[in-house]
Design goal:
With about 170 residues, the chain is mainly alpha-helical. The protein has a domain of about 120 residues. Helix content is about 40%, strand content about 5%. It is built from six helices and three strands. It has a three-stranded antiparallel β-sheet. A hairpin with a 2-residue loop joins strand 2 and strand 3. Helix 1 packs across helix 2 and helix 1 crosses helix 4. The longest helix is centred in the N-terminal third of the chain and has 15 residues. It is elongated, with a radius of gyration of 23 Å. The termini are far apart.
């Protein structure tokens, strides 16, 4: 799907591959570096690229929350060791990536083939649907669901008295 008329930067190729993964697998939060490399290959975006260059981009050049090396792009975000997703504007950024002018977080429309415009549009829509920071959905968190459970146990007495009574019973 790579257009021969436009020479895509490596960072843009990787971003497009990760966007394709997100769009194709909307239930996934992140992707391993190997999954991203495979998507680059499967989509034809890896033509003429060195594996070492791809590795460096996936490890540090593009990742917003790790120290920068030569570039300060904010195109990807490491969610856990070895797993990445697309950067969201509300994501925390490594302090050294905050110095100077705003850094790149997605490909420039003028520099990609029109074949990929739908991915750029998809990204704009995707980030607009993300919850604001601090409003994560905890409905699926088993520990959060426990809040308030067991309150009937000491409903008739203060918690300190309840503990003291338990201690007396063990004697």
């Amino acid at each position: 799907m790579v257009s021969t008329g436009i020479d895509l930067l490596l960072a843009d190729r990787i971003w497009l591959a990760v966007a394709m993964l997100h769009r194709d697998l909307p239930d996934r939060q992140d992707f391993s570096r190997e999954e991203i490399r495979k998507k680059l290959t499967d989509s034809g975006l890896d033509m003429g690229l060195k594996r070492t260059s791809i590795h460096a981009h996936l490890k540090e050049h593009m990742v917003a929350n790790v120290p920068p090396s030569s570039t300060r792009y904010r195109m990807l975000y490491e969610t856990r060791p070895g797993y990445l997703r697309l950067f969201r504007p509300d994501d925390p950024v490594h302090p050294l990536r905050q110095i100077g002018k705003l850094t790149k977080h997605m490909p420039e429309r003028e520099k990609v083939s029109p074949d990929y415009f739908s991915l750029l549009d998809w990204y704009d829509d995707w980030i607009s649907k993300q919850p604001p920071p601090g409003t994560a959905n905890y409905d699926d968190d088993p520990l959060i669901r426990l809040i308030g459970s067991g309150k009937h146990i000491w409903a008739d007495e203060h918690a300190d008295e309840y503990v003291e009574n338990l201690r007396r019973e063990d004697i």
